[in-house]
Amino acid sequence: MKKETILFKKGRNIFNEGEKVKGIFFLYTGSVKVYKQWGDQKQLILRFAKEGDILGHRGLGGVDVYPIAATALEDTKACFITNDFLEATLKTNPSFTYKLMHFYATELQKAEQRMRNLAHMEVKGRIAEALLELCDVFGTDEHKYISVAVSRQDIASYAGTTYETVFKFFTELIQKKIITTSGKTIKINNAAKLKQYISGHEK
Amino acid sequence: MKKETILFKKGRNIFNEGEKVKGIFFLYTGSVKVYKQWGDQKQLILRFAKEGDILGHRGLGGVDVYPIAATALEDTKACFITNDFLEATLKTNPSFTYKLMHFYATELQKAEQRMRNLAHMEVKGRIAEALLELCDVFGTDEHKYISVAVSRQDIASYAGTTYETVFKFFTELIQKKIITTSGKTIKINNAAKLKQYISGHEK
DNA sequence: CGAGTCGTTGAAAGAATTCAACTTGTGTGG
DNA sequence: CCACACAAGTTGAATTCTTTCAACGACTCG
Description:
The structure is a homodimer. Chain A is α+β, with helices and mostly antiparallel strands. Chain A has six helices and ten strands; from the N terminus they run E-E-E-E-E-E-E-E-H-H-H-H-H-E-E-H. In chain A, the strands form three sheets. A four-stranded antiparallel sheet of chain A has the order 1-8-3-6. In chain A, helix 1 (83-92) packs across helix 2 (94-120), helix 3 (123-138) packs across helix 4 (152-159) and helix 4 packs across helix 5. The first copy, chain A, is globular, with a radius of gyration of 18 Å. The termini of chain A are far apart. In chain A, 40% of the residues are buried. The A-B interface holds A 36, 38-40, 42, 44, 46, 57-58, 60-63, 67-68, 90-91, 94, 97-98, 100-102, 104-109, 111-116, 118-121, 160, 200-202 and B 36, 38-40, 42, 44, 46, 57-58, 60-63, 67-68, 90-91, 94, 97-98, 100-102, 104-109, 111-116, 118-121, 160, 200-202. Chain B binds a DNA duplex through helix 5.
């Protein structure tokens, strides 16, 4: 037993928080949200992943249960790699280990950057950041719309705020023509103005 | 040039955010805060480190400047390891690389845990968490006081809140005899009650 | 003995969430 | 094809939590 390709339908859970770690995934196609739960209702989305990204690597630290959950945002194909195979590869292929270590280091930096933002940036800034991040991760289609339809609830969960707050800020942004929406997809018209909401917040 | 031991006086910066990465540090003695700046006045403390901990390892991800700063909380001795030496060790010693990778994976988990807390936990919970974390990292002296005197400002920066808010909550905790203070040091009398402020927050 | 800093406190202001209502859309069954 | 029920989208107002501001007393340093 080594690798196998699995298809996850849109909305399906790939793995759950607290579930025993069985291995890691490489995404072939599709997109995924990775998140942590808080109470019943609230979640914090840690990261969006797309083709080429690794998933479930958080299972490698100490404990043997996933500290996070992952759900497919659209139909997603992933290659599953068992722990045994992964461990064997790490042992025989030091340069792979080295690369993976660098990957972790980068992820850590990003996580800490975001930690600071969650702590000190105001909500509008965090939502603006979330939009730019989505654009960055998923890219845009031929009409400059963000390629994946992410719900406002998910944007809220990513920015660490509520659905309504996102909604109200979106209304403001649309009025100012900084973004445009069409159904569930979003277009950023003016990234520069969006970034103004982020800035270093000096009074 | 390989390793050298350096002494940092209390309050001294070990390295600054944006500074070019020169290597990493292992702490022999003392304690350190690792933080990110926000604007002029605000900072978010990411982590407290003590003897035996690694410092500056965030410099390994992609960019070659430290994404964070570190300051000694008390007189601290550290062993400095240059990048060259570190890289050489990583290349010749795969099991070290493997361990370092695991270390990163664990740090990443902790960071994401804390991210969720910053996003969804209310302030009192975050302060309570900060106290328990301090206790966990630094341990207590013979009178059960936390071994290192950390300023309330630093606790605020760790919990992502303001000095005054920490102060007021401390007053409440002291009244309820959940903690005791003596000068700048703190004793936790009732960890269980402190944890109540953290809980899963279901209404 | 001021000047200034730090610790302490209360009150005001502000930001975001929550709540509740209303509108729109969707689907089901008559 | 219409009527009704239910879910989802939209909005404003009230509430809550936290921060900010300002003032006061204590304590330290020239």
